[in-house]
Amino acid sequence: MASSDQTPSGTPHIGGGGGDQPVPGKPMSVQQHMLDKGAQMLQSLKPIKEMNQHVCSFAIYSHDMSRQIETHHYATRINQDFLQCAVYDTDDSHGRLIGVEYIITDKLFEALPPEEQKLWHSHAYEIKSGLWVNPRVPEMVLKPELENLAKSYGKFWCTWQVDRGDRLPLGAPALMMSPQAVNMGMIKPELIQKRDNKYNISTDALQKTRMEIAEPEWLNPQADYWKQHGKGFAIDIVPTDMKLRAPFP
Which intervals of the chain are annotated as region Disordered (predicted)? Predict the structure, then answer.
C-alpha cells in the first residue's frame, strides 16, 4: 500500500500538503557535499557575492489577492536605477528560491510601454508603512536607501507557490503585487506579527519613524493596475507551433 504522500503507482505527490513539506528527493551524499565544497573554493561565484542586501517584506498574488506571503529578497544593485533580487520563502539555510523581482527607479519606469507598466507595482506604501525591512540594519543607516526605494517600482514573478503546498515548482510563474493601503492590499495582521516577533521589531514603530519619507509627487496609474481596474494578471500555458531552425544549405 502506498504511503500518505504517494500515488498508487508509487510516485510522490508534488502538489499540496502544506508549505512546510520537504522537497522530494534523497538526502545529500557525503560525495556531493565534498564536491560542493571543492567547487565553492575553486569557483568565483561572482554574481552571488554581489548580493549585498537582505530585505524581508510581503507580497500578494495578482490573480488571487487573498493569498499573501512573507518574502525574503537578496538584492544586487546593478546601478543607481536598477536592482535585481533573488526571492526566497525564508532566510534560513534551507530557504527555497521562489521567484525573482526587478526594481527600477521612476525614471526608468516612465520610459516603459503602457502595457508593460501594468505588470509593475509601486513601493511607496510598502516602504512608508514599515512592511519593507532590512533585518538588523539600523534605520538611520537605511534612510537614504528607503527614500530612493519609496519612488521605485518592482516586477515580481513567483516561480514556486510554496504557500499552496507545492513541493516542487509547478506550472507557470505568477505575477505578484506589493501591499497597498486599500481593499485587499492590506497585509493580514497575523503575518506581520509573526515577522515582527522573529526579528524583534515593531512594524507600527517603523511606520512612525518613516512618516517624513517623501512619497512620489505622482504615481503612474498604470502601476498597481488592480487598484484602478480590479483585475490581476495570470499566465496560461498553451501549446504553440515551434519556430524551427532553417536547414543547412
Answer: 1-29
